[in-house]
């Protein structure tokens, strides 16, 4: 793996992955404070102070070098005003095994248009190309049908469902694991 690796904007057909900025606060707050958006996430709706702390923590995360490093770029529409419509996530889980976790969050008014899939494709292409990863996986609440559908469209294989895996938001919740290998991604690109 060619580490360290520093983030730079990634262009897709309709989207651009770019570093989060301080002027993303309002859009990020709208996402993170919405109970419906947070329904299947690991956190409850966040206060303005909590979102400010998240932005301060995540905006500088632009380098992958060691285990647990991550990037969380903003999703922006190429034909839009440059505002944040969601975020992506790529977390380096092992350098030796060349693995990472991927995730996405798209605002309600932008859901159902394929933006999460397109952005995930950009990060998978980066992961299996320039970064030389072997395996990328997603962990999600299996009740989140939209995210499950993104995984399926990406060619990710359902590997496991951990039943009542964690106590979250007052209930036992399952965790679904989806994954794709570099050779499987390469086969899909042919």
Structure description:
The chain is of the alpha+beta class and 190 residues long. The chain has a single domain (10-189), classed as Gcn5-related N-acetyltransferase (GNAT) (Aminopeptidase). The chain has six helices and eleven strands. The strands form two sheets. Strands 2, 3, 5, 6, 7, 8, 9, 10 and 11 form a nine-stranded mixed beta sheet that branches. The radius of gyration is 16 Å and the shape is globular. The mean pLDDT is 96.
CATH class: Alpha Beta
List the total number of helices: 6
Q: Major sheet: size, sense and barrel closure?
A: 9 strands, mixed
Fraction in beta strands: 25-35%
Mean pLDDT, as a whole number?
96
- How many discrete domains? 1
At the fold tier of CATH, the topology name is Aminopeptidase
User: pLDDT below 50 for ≥5 consecutive residues: which ranges?
Assistant: none
Distance between the termini: 23 Å
Q: How would you classify the helix and strand content by structural class?
A: alpha+beta
Q: Please, what is the CATH homologous superfamily?
A: Gcn5-related N-acetyltransferase (GNAT)
Short description:
The chain is of the alpha+beta class and 190 residues long. The chain has six helices and eleven strands.
């Amino acid at each position: 793996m060619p580490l360290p690796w520093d983030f730079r904007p990634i262009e897709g057909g309709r989207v651009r992955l770019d570093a989060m900025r301080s002027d993303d606060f309002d859009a990020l707050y709208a996402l993170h404070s919405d109970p419906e958006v947070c329904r299947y996430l690991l956190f409850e709706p966040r206060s303005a102070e909590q979102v400010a702390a998240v932005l301060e923590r995540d905006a500088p995360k632009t380098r992958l070098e060691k285990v647990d490093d991550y990037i969380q770029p903003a999703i922006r529409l190429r034909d839009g005003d440059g505002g944040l419509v969601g975020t992506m996530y790529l977390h380096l889980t092992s350098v030796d095994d060349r693995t990472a976790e991927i995730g996405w969050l798209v605002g309600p008014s932008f859901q159902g248009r394929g933006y999460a899939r397109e952005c995930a494709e950009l990060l998978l292409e980066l992961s299996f190309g320039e970064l030389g990863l072997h395996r990328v996986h997603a962990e999600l609440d299996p009740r989140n049908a939209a995210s499950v559908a993104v995984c399926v469209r990406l060619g990710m294989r359902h590997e496991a469902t951990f039943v009542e895996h964690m106590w979250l938001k007052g209930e036992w919740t399952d965790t679904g694991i989806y994954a794709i290998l570099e050779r499987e991604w390469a086969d899909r690109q042919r």
